[in-house]
UniProtKB/TrEMBL annotation:
One of its GO terms (cellular component) is plasma membrane. It comes from Yersinia pseudotuberculosis. It is found in: Cell membrane. This is O-unit flippase. The chain crosses the membrane at residues 31-53, 65-86, 107-129, 178-203, 209-228, 240-261, 267-287, 308-328, 348-370, 382-407. Keywords: Cell membrane, Membrane, Transmembrane, Transmembrane helix. It is a multi-pass membrane protein. InterPro entries: Poly_Biosynth_Transport. The gene is wzx.
Length: 432
């Protein structure tokens, strides 16, 4: 009996060690890389913001933020295809269909070229005419090129995540962002930051293309202009497109509206605050992204881990910690980062944004689970409605100033509380 008992204890310890080893492997391979990756971009902006403001002025900084904001619309312009590609690739790899994965990536690249290149050629042609405002055409060309290269960047970054090779995705972003930052610094020194920002985005997308082709899929990706495949990508991503259309209201719409209504200088005051709030939000959101391909795989196999809901709730609570800390130390952070006068004028704005984005951070766990279990239609409807209401409310209050605009950020997370009801119904219907 003693021998049998000893064997049971030994097996139990062995199982505990295996669980611990698997947990550490999950943290190092699946969870930590997306967090670090998502942190790299905002960190670069965090470093560059005071440098640009102090060297080029608030107006030039406002124009720079405007260009970056426009380039972020690329996923909406391409109908959400690159945003949805991680899920479709993950599903194909679960059944070992690597040929379909190659078709998905090639057709997605083709769609990007089909959308942006005609506009680029048209404005390059218009630039040849003397009676055209060449300065305006130059800016439009740079905006189109920035969107084109940003979407290529999104394609290969998200495709790599579909392979669940988050360490490679981190490598791409780290190398690309170092080069990107170097190009921006050159732009600051040459007093031509808009042009060099476009160069920076192009260089970063090229790096991701090379790493994805050479290390991830191990073939050089060339466009494949198959009408059937391109149409399939559009059909697959239709609900993601609607979700992105709504999501842009939270992260980008205000940065386009403020310079129009209040001026570029007001954007320069608002952008650092929203930048910090989005940085605090992006860290947990990046960690929670792994839930989408993970739950997609669970659903395809019909097997969910025990007590997953408790772990998700715990993850949701921890997701709000960065924004909570930002709320407490908002005034001190702004004073150290930029200067004391800027902090005294704008720390209340940052606190309001920290609460709004903190709520959204907590709900991001359920957001990615809903996408993973195939509820993209419902997610798209919620985000589209929330986005529409946010944009409408922002337009209505914009004339009263930034202090009113920031409170409109609460509309989006309030609408997303619907996820909790949907998760409850999913558990009930699936017998979890």
């Amino acid at each position: 009996m003693k021998i049998k008992y000893s064997l049971l204890i030994a097996n139990k310890k062995k199982n505990q060690l295996m669980i611990s080893s698997n947990s550490m492997r999950f943290l190092s391979n699946k969870l930590i890389p997306p967090i670090v990756e998502q942190f790299i971009g905002p960190l670069a902006l965090f470093i560059l913001t005071p440098i640009i403001i102090n060297n080029l002025g608030t107006k030039e900084y406002g124009l720079w933020i405007l260009l970056l904001s426009l380039s972020m619309f690329s996923q909406v312009i391409c109908f959400g295809v690159t945003a949805w590609i991680a899920k479709t690739i993950s599903e194909c790899l679960s059944i070992s269909d690597i040929l379909k994965v190659k078709r998905i990536v090639r057709s997605s690249l083709s769609l990007i070229f089909i959308i942006f290149l005609p506009f680029l050629f048209v404005f390059i042609f218009l630039y040849l005419f003397d009676e055209i405002d060449k300065a305006l055409i130059e800016i439009i060309i740079l905006c189109i090129m920035s969107c084109l290269f940003q979407e290529i960047d999104n394609l290969f970054a998200n495709a790599t995540k579909g392979f669940e090779l988050f360490d490679y995705s981190l490598l791409m972003e780290a190398i690309g962002r170092v080069v990107w930052t170097g190009c921006i610094v050159v732009g600051i020194l040459r007093n031509d930051i808009i042009f060099y920002t476009c160069v920076a985005i192009a260089a970063k997308s090229l790096i991701k293309y090379i790493i994805f082709s050479f290390f991830v899929i191990k073939i050089w990706i060339i466009p494949s202009y198959s009408i059937y495949e391109i149409n399939s990508r559009l059909i697959e991503s239709k609900w993601m497109f609607l979700q992105l259309l709504g999501g842009t209201s939270l992260s980008l719409f205000d940065r386009l509206l403020i310079p129009i209504v209040l001026g570029v200088n007001k954007l320069a005051a608002y952008a650092p605050c929203i930048q910090l709030a989005q940085l605090a939000f992006s860290v947990p959101a990046a960690a929670n992204q792994v839930l989408m391909p993970m739950f997609s795989r669970f659903k395809s196999k019909g097997n969910y881990p025990p007590n997953w809901l408790k772990m998700v709730i715990l993850l949701s609570i921890f997701s709000g910690v960065p924004c909570f800390l930002l709320f407490i130390f908002s005034q001190e952070i702004l004073a150290i980062w930029i200067n004391t006068s800027f902090s005294n004028e704008n720390y209340i704005i940052l606190r309001v944004l920290a609460v709004a984005y903190g709520t959204l951070s907590c709900l991001s766990t359920f957001h990615f689970i809903m996408l993973g279990i195939g509820e993209s239609k419902m997610v798209a409807k919620i985000n589209l409605l929330a986005g529409g209401l946010t944009m409408l409310a922002t337009i209505l209050v914009s004339q009263f100033g930034i202090n009113y605009i920031v409170y409109m950020k609460f509309i989006y997370p309030i609408m997303q509380f619907k996820y909790l009801t949907s998760i409850k119904n999913f558990i009930k219907n699936s017998g979890q």
